[in-house]
Amino acid sequence: MSLRLDHIVITVSDLKTAFDDYKSLGFNPIQGGEHANGITQNVLVIFEDGSYLELIAWKRPDEGMRWSDTYHADGEGFIDHALLPGDIVEVVKGAQARGLDISDPMDGGRLRPDGERLVWKTARSPGSDVPFLCGDVTPRRLRVQEDAEIRRQPNGVTGVAEITVGVRDVAASAKRYAALIGGEAPSDVVTATVLGTPARTVSLTLSGGTKVTLAEPTASGTLADLIEARGQGPVAVAYKGGKPGELDLAKTHKARMAIV
């Protein structure tokens, strides 16, 4: 069994500014609405392959919530990524049976600007080296619109080719990630340079073809600094489609992105 990439979460300080900046980069952002907690709101960029970016902002701190604590301590940037389960209850049971410390599913939701109320369930491990699960209760098409005009990006991007996740122990994180998605943990460790930092890496492939590279820094550098400041989690994303090149870090709100 494997799971698809559902979405990637980026913390921002102001949604209107982030909306305008992503639009200037050739993306097609849309208003997402307010979450059921009444504390966060979001903007979405939905791709043709069904994955999306979530730009999230806080009305006030949500103390004890990792995303909020990280944002209020370190500011904008990548904070997490989610996978899409078919049956979240069964996927969680399987991951737990394989030894992953993932919670039972919890209710969540969002109110869209048009009044449509969305309901989903999420399940998380305390360790941010692995993604959380986001399974829909209401139809996914309400959360992730299927309109071709919404999903068409003027810059030509059609989806996520690769997501790089900064981790502290690449072997341990590979086992945890494999326990979540099912299958054997990759054992081939490759020495590489990630964000200008020497690193040990392993790679997995999600359903749908998105590559996940887990990267453990072996020396000081940007990768090590990001893990120190923001914890384990996404540090870079590569998109498929469009004109190759790196995107302006100021416009992406400190989220390192490139089109490949």
Automatic annotation (TrEMBL):
Pfam families: Glyoxalase_3. InterPro entries: Glyas_Bleomycin-R_OHBP_Dase, Glyoxalase-like_dom. Residues 5-180 form the Glyoxalase-like domain. It comes from the Bacteria. PANTHER family: BLL2707 PROTEIN, GLYOXALASE-LIKE DOMAIN-CONTAINING PROTEIN. This is Glyoxalase-like protein. It comes from Enterovirga rhinocerotis. The lineage of its organism: Bacteria, Pseudomonadati, Pseudomonadota, Alphaproteobacteria, Hyphomicrobiales.
